[in-house]
Amino acid sequence: MERFKTLKDHVYDYIAEAIREGKLLPGQRISEGDICAELDISRTPVREALIQLAAEGVIQNTSRKGFTIKAITSKEILELYTVIGALDATAARLACDHLTRQDYADMSFYIDSIDLAIKACNFEMYHKQQLAFHDIYIYKCGNKSLISFIETAKNKLISKVYTDAVEENAMDVLFAVNEEHRQILALFKAGDKEGVYKYIAEKHWVPIYTKDDVIL
Questions:
Q1: Is 2 a member of any domain?
Q2: Which of 69, 94, 110 is at the close of a domain?
Q3: Which CATH number belongs to the domain containing residue 182 in this structure?
Q4: Which residues contact 105 (CB under 8 A, 6 or more apart)?
Q5: Alpha carbon 174 to chain centroid distance?
Q6: Which of 74, 107, 119, 177 is the most buried (most CB within 10 A)?
Q7: What gap in Å lies between CA 155 and CA 9, rounded to an integer?
Q8: CA distances for 16 relative to 19, 25, 30, 91, 197, angstroms
Q9: How confident is the model over 134-174, as pLDDT tens digits?
Q10: Any idea what the Cα angle at residue 89 is, between residues 83 and 90, rounded to 5°?
Q11: Per-residue pLDDT tens for 86-121?
């Protein structure tokens, strides 16, 4: 079950999602006033959320520019993939005993939705649907600290620039990644705890296409 969220937590999620979706780009200044106006809230929870994101290394605070989006290199992304893979795999193994038929049905729905998003070249929807797929078992793992670590690590991954990679057959790669989601679901249904752990850590979170800062 998802933890109770304070107003600061909701602001944190709002900013993190904007970063993941590429609405806030590396080097761009974050306007506290704009966020206050968009969410119709006071400055205090916005400031608290920004301080937390800065402490986690997602954004940075400089004396002249204020809070700005921190750039991330391909090397740092590869390192994050390794960390997230291990954490995600651990959550999957813990969740095996708690997943229900409805969870399986929901995961299957997201897999089908991902295929449709790829066919429509709707990469923003692709990103949201694949996050939703993983969130089903992550939130069923029963370990709040693990969930928090996964969320923090994922927040550092700025949205992937799929549009520039279409010419390099990136859509075929995305379909292949979604086939991995089907394999993960099959391992869950089989109750194969070690199998799903190994597959996620050693296969699913290993980039299979790289180009500059674009990693799938």
A1: no
A2: 69
A3: 1.20.120.530
A4: none
A5: 15
A6: 107
A7: 13
A8: 5, 12, 12, 21, 27
A9: 999 999 999 999 999 998 888 777 554 444 444 456 788 88
A10: 95
A11: 999 999 999 999 999 999 999 999 999 999 999 998
